[in-house]
Amino acid sequence: MNKSTFVKKTTLFLNTLDFVKKPVVFDKLDSTNLTAKALAKAGAKEGTVVIARTQSHGRGRFDRIWQSPPGGIYLSLILRPTVPIQQASLLSFMTALAVTKTIRSYGVLATIKWPNDVRVNSRKIAGLLLESEGDGSKIDYVVVGIGINLCVDLKNLSSAIQEKSTSLRNELPGPVDYYDFLKIFFMTFEDYYSDFQAQKYDKILTEWKAWSDTLGKRVKIKTMTGTLQGTVDDVDNSGFLILRTEKGDTQKIITGDCLYFDELDHT
Ligand code: BTN
Questions:
Q1: Which of 12, 93, 104, 230 is the most buried (most CB within 10 A)?
Q2: How far is Cα 235 from Cα 174, in angstroms, rounded to an integer?
């Protein structure tokens, strides 16, 4: 972490369970994922959390920029899971569940769009970026990066992002407290993470499927190797999306950019 990238830091005592170790809140960082990765490489313990009030170089999936104005939650958690590496992708499912459940605790019907978006009324409210290091058979660490539009003033996002986004503040009649939200989130995350470590994958997937808006949808999925079109049939126990393509075959997809046909601009 470059000293010039933050102004001030505060240590929080959220009184959550013992998993999350005294989160440090920075006024400003380049990217909480970058800071957390540096800490993880230097041996930081599981449960270490880095939070920033704003980010100058917030990163999204596929190296996109994650616009990070004040009012949002920008956090990264270091995990050192002990489960078989094939199950690592379910971490993004359980993280999406934890974010969704926290938002739902405010009475707002958040849904999950495969693989890593949380949405309200078809507008994105949160995104996840998981980055891991390991030797192919064992996970050394996973940095779980989470960006949530909590009280973001949507006018502070570019117009292209604005029209596809919402903020929890916009979905509620009253204000939302930053620290209350974090506390509920960490407690919820901790519950799901203990299910994950106990290999309760069926429970995680059943809940994920109940809250996902992707199953049954006609989609276009951009992967590293090309674009596929079809209907989403299911998600398997390792987190692969099962797509029935328009050519009539079935494809298993681990990650990609997913677009819903019914939301594409057909003009
Ligand atoms: C996406 O939807 O593309 C994922 C966005 C992830 C953004 C979060 S904000 C906290 C953490 N630090 C980053 O630089 N990115 C993630």
A1: 93
A2: 37
> Concatenated DSSP letters for 35-94?
HHHHHHHTTPPTTEEEEEEEESS-B-GGG-B----TTSEEEEEEE---S-GGGTTHHHHH
Query: pTM for this structure?
Result: 0.93
From CA 177, how far away is CA 265, in angstroms rounded? 36
- 76 close to ligand 1 (CB < 6 Angstrom): yes
**CB 145 near ligand 1, within 6 Å:** yes
Instruction: Answer whether 50 contacts ligand 1 (Cβ < 6 A).
Output: no
Low-confidence stretches of the chain (pLDDT < 70) are 1-19, 21, 266-267
Task: Take atom 16 of ligand 1 and give the residue whose Cα is closest.
Answer: 145
